[in-house]
Amino acid sequence: MEKWCKKMNGLIPHHLKVIFKVYLSGIVLFTILRFILFFATLNQLSTVQENSIWVMMQAFFMGWRFDTVISGYILILPIVILSIGEAFHKYSKYFVIPVKIFIITLYIIAFLICFADIPFYIQFGNRFNMSAFQWFDSPIFVIKMIASEYRYWLAVVPFILFSFLWYKWINYLFQNYSNRISFLKIHSKLKGILLFSIASILFMGITFLGIRGRIEQKSPIRIGTAFFSPYPYANQLGLNPVFTLMRSWLDNLKSENKEIHFISDEQAIAIMQQHLGIDTLIHESPIARFRNVGSKALNYNVVVVIMESMGAQNMARFGNTENLTPVLDDLATKSISFDQAYTTGIHTYNGVFSSLFAFPAIPQKHAFNDFPINIYSGLSGILKENGYQTLFFMTHDDQFDNLGGFLTANHFEDITSQKHYPKEKVISNLGVPDHVMFEFAVDKISEKSMNEKPFFAAFLTSSNHGPYIFPPDISLRPKSSDVKKQMIEYSDWAIGQFLAQASQKPWFDNTIFVFVADHGFNAPSPFEIPLSYHHSPFLIYAPAILDSIFSSSEIASQMDIFPTVMGLLGNPYINNTLGVDLLTENRQYAIVANNSSYGVISKEWFLVIREDGEILFYDLSENNSLNLSNQKTQTIMQEFAQSNYQIVQYLTKHKLSNKR
């Protein structure tokens, strides 16, 4: 047996044996990184409800397939170069050294992406993709935020170790490469050429098969190939983040992806007009409709607080047993509470856009980065037109996400950001703690209100976002030892402080307060899109104004804040958005987007449309069961979501989003 192995080993050219060893060692390191991700997200294993060991084994096997694809892409060029060198007996440094550098560099870049993927997946529930670079217009801000988060630093040491070991290992594999006897000289001329040709062709054929990832002729391996089970966690685990990043980059380059083309504009307009009850056009915008006609303008002040990552699952009202949000839970009993409200996206810019301007977050689109900046007729535009002062308060740099530029263009007259607070109050790159922003705002609003003009003030909190830094010198003593939960407690406490301070001001009794999350957080879920990332508190609090308080279990969306508040104000206006007044109208569906995938939620159903077009249809009454038989409902829900997205594009493309 030993002699046979040696004989077979002698039939394989040396450069192919070296490349195969490179491949095997790369697969080992990719697998270790997948295990790191697995253990970092072990809490999600509970979503795999049957045969979890077998499902995880399949996920890791799928991971090997995707890791092989990436390895094949990296190694195909070295195989060709070394094969040419072997054929012409060229083993000089001009052949070997560039190949070594190429292999070392590309694998280290791949390992870096894999390490970056771990916190990315924990945060967003998606493997690494182009959405990670949507903040590249604010690189310094992002670098500071990453550098301030200790969890990210924990990945630096193993990445350096991976890189060092890889460098040493590749150098070891290629040592004495140039000093050996040529494979073609070991064998007779004809035999050597024949063996070399067969081995090289076979090896390159296997490599190309590895790159393709599938034997089937119809298509190569795709992201959808990884979705082998009904469990999103297992499906995601099988992907390689280098593959998902490159796939999303290539998709972004396609001309058809510059604009969305779900359905025709005409079909989208007809569907949304039916849902919104529009039978008469009042101007060029196909969704514009008169509201509050003949009503008296009450001119109440309006405050909208967009709370960072304050998903509904943080609250006792929605089942949390840790008493993290006593202020919000108490506030909900004194407010109009929409208990089935959902955010349209999973990023802060999505939350600000939808909450203030009543349009959805389009998958893979960043509304604030469009140039020229699009103008919308949301709360700030309509209220400014009605004589309101418009203010926006944030804790951090207003250049992040192009917030300052977008909000200024969209009718906010006064924007307070990090540069306006005392420097000693700034504790991280996220600026000042929430309570400092609120204290500053109460004083500023009180000063502004002295001119007797009503005001609209929007707030964006940030403390409940990494890097998590518990503010010093405050009275709150958190119950939890987990810093993330401490920050939830703090964010809730800061809102209580804000209301307590505001209640002492003359403008308080004449003000409508709205509280909503920008988005939730990624929690273990049986669904392809975790509802924890979208289920949001939505509270309207105005103790001296509201005639009654109640809880609604009807479907609601961030997009409904604008028309619902306008309904309470009574000001006649044109609603040229996709939001509805929840106090007088009915919302049948809420749409959500999770980077490239999107979903539609009703009281009974949850439809998810993956990036590759595959559809998952969940029965919410069964929590996680798939039901693919109700084709009519699926079609209606899918067309509703696609019409929403298509309408946004249509309005902005034709400069109709600001018509009022």
In words, what does this structure look like?
The chain is of the alpha/beta class and about 650 residues long. The protein has 2 domains: about 1-255, no CATH class; about 265-655, 3-Layer(aba) Sandwich (Alkaline Phosphatase, subunit A), CATH 3.40.720. About 45% of the residues lie in helices and about 10% in strands. Strands 2, 3, 4, 5, 6, 7, 8, 9 and 10 form a 9-stranded mixed β-sheet that branches. A hairpin with a 2-residue loop joins strand 12 (about 590-595) and strand 13 (about 595-600). Helix 2 runs antiparallel to helix 3, helix 3 (about 50-85) packs antiparallel against helix 4 (about 95-125) and helix 3 packs antiparallel against helix 9. The protein is elongated and about 100 Å long.
Topology (SSEs and partners):
Blueprint: H1 2-10, H2 14-40, H3 52-87, H4 93-124, H5 139-147, H6 150-153, H7 156-173, H8 183-186, H9 189-212, H10 232-237, H11 241-253, H12 265-276, E1 289-291, E2 301-307, H13 326-332, E3 336-342, H14 348-357, H15 379-385, E4 389-394, H16 403-409, E5 414-416, H17 434-448, E6 455-460, H18 483-502, E7 511-517, E8 535-536, E9 538-541, E10 551-557, H19 561-569, E11 573-575, E12 590-594, E13 597-601, E14 605-609, E15 615-619, E16 625-626, H20 631-653
Parallel strand pairs: 2-6, 2-7, 3-10, 4-5, 4-6
Antiparallel strand pairs: 1-11, 3-8, 3-9, 7-9, 12-13, 13-14, 14-15, 15-16
